[in-house]
Amino acid sequence: MGQSPSGPSGVDAGDLPSTPLSAVMRTEAVDIRRRARSGRGSARAAGEGPKGSAGMIQWVSLATGPRPVPQPVSTPLVWATAFAGAMALVALLNALVGTDRPGLALTALSLLSALLGVYARFTAAPGTAALCWLFLNGFAIPPVGVLTWANPRDMFWLVCLLTAALTGTTLARLLQARAAYRRLTTSVLPRTQEPGDWPGDV
């Protein structure tokens, strides 16, 4: 008995639908055209702006945002500046007014400590005060070049120098935080319309 030919999967050829090949090809071509049209429509919708115009590149200025708080100077650099500045300042005072004016030298070194504290961290304040006291005690009072310790006097000097350094750092941090808060609020909060801003308002 003759057997009907079967496909690769064991299905008889008689079970397959008798659809013409040209009809299948036309159906696939219609599906491809529909996919292409839908793809072009989605791409066109994505490229259009809010008013239906073609999308364009928008240039945004990076400098308009809030600026970060400035970073303090490294502590070793602050101490090196304190060493050189105190040495130059004491040498200048000794040349101008002599070595027996500790009050004037303490005032000048306290201003130097406060100025350095503006750019330094809080942890740099003790080292800055100690370096300034070193030149104040060793070179601004006689005998020059000899370190001495008098309990009320030198403790008062150290407290004054340390307070000056911490005061400079604290004021700098407060001013920087206030400036950063102003920049942040002006860039985030919208501007409120005042009565005289609209056309025709009095």
Essential attributes:
202 residues; mainly alpha; 59% helix
Structure characterization notes:
Helices cover 59% and strands 0% of the residues. By secondary structure, it is an all-alpha fold. Helix 2 runs antiparallel to helix 3. It starts with 20 loop residues before the first helix and ends in a 14-residue tail after the last helix. Mean pLDDT is 77; it is low at 1-17 and 48-54.
The profile of the biggest β sheet is:
none
Please trace the helix and strand order, writing H or E for each element.
Answer: HHHHH
Helix content: 55-70%
DSSP helix count? 5
Number of strands: 0
SS-based structural class? mainly alpha
Mean pLDDT: 77
Which residues form runs of ≥5 with pLDDT under 50? 1-17, 48-54
Output the radius of gyration: 41 Å
Beta-strand percentage?
under 5%
- The end-to-end distance, rounded to whole angstroms, is 108 Å
Q: Name the overall outline.
A: rod-shaped
What is the gist of this entry?
With 202 residues, the chain is mainly α. The chain has 5 helices and no strands.
Fold blueprint:
Blueprint: H1 21-47, H2 75-96, H3 102-118, H4 125-139, H5 151-188
